[in-house]
Specification:
The protein has three helices and 14 strands. It folds into two domains: 1-21 and 251-270; 24-247, Jelly Rolls (Sandwich), CATH 2.60.120. Strands 1, 3, 4, 6, 10, 11, 12 and 14 form an eight-stranded antiparallel sheet that branches. It has a six-stranded antiparallel sheet with strand order 2-5-13-7-8-9, with no helix packed on it. It has 270 residues and is α+β, with helices and mostly antiparallel strands. Helices cover 15% and strands 34% of the residues. The chain binds calcium ion. Residues 31-32, 64, 75-79, 233-234 line the site of calcium ion (CA). Calcium ion is lined by residues 31-32, 64, 75-79, 233-234.
Amino acid sequence: MQLSRVSLAFAAVASLGIATTSYGDILAYEGFNYQASSLNTANGGIGFSGAWVTNPNVPLSQTSLNYPSGTNLTPIGGSASSPGNGIANRNLSFTINNETEGTYYFSFLIQRSAPPNITSGVFVSGLQLQPHPGNGLARIDLGIGSDGFLRACIDGQPCNKPNYAIEEGVTYFVVARLDTAAGEDRLRVAFFNPSQQVPNSEPVWEIDRMLTLAESISTIAIRGGGSTAWDVDEIRITTTYAEATGAIPEPASLALVTGSALLILRRRSR
Ligand SMILES: [Ca+2]
């Protein structure tokens, strides 16, 4: 009897917490929910202006990559492969102005599907955030080096990387936070392997660097090169950490309500 009372109280607290929490806005989402076999001219998702333009072809799989276990997000549709030594661009329907104060989150799934290849130097393949299709100015690269390491790079500046290479055939969840401001901007990145719990509050970021982005961000790109074969899925751009990761926010009021509920239960049990 007492147990069911406790369960009901927590169910009520949980539903209250969710019902009163704002999750902010998803600015863009691409889950690769397409029947076609290639990405060129695909025009789904939200937050985009126009379709994907790929050069060369980007093969689509009908199977999604998976989030780390316990992540409160569900992939849809399939996933995309890397475009060989090419690029796939898609314009956003909004612009991130790097000279105005703002906070943005980016998340996506990435998996390396071939051994490292460093015969031609380290080339970074991955998701690019850039001002114009293909010109590479003020570009942020989040992805995989041809040496097999995860990397976060800013165009023309040294890359940052965690001190481990990513395993072939293992999907990693990449979460990034970009704070824009007049003058210097700040980029933070964390990588989660399939068994790592994505925390409900912001993680200890593995990469945290200041940078100066000269232009706005209005395009995303899937960039291939250096013979690094990889897959990408579930691209999100949001204004909150919760929307980017599926984390359940913990509003201050929830702690208060939980405390009150426990107090009531203690009184009843006496
Ligand atoms: Ca998907």
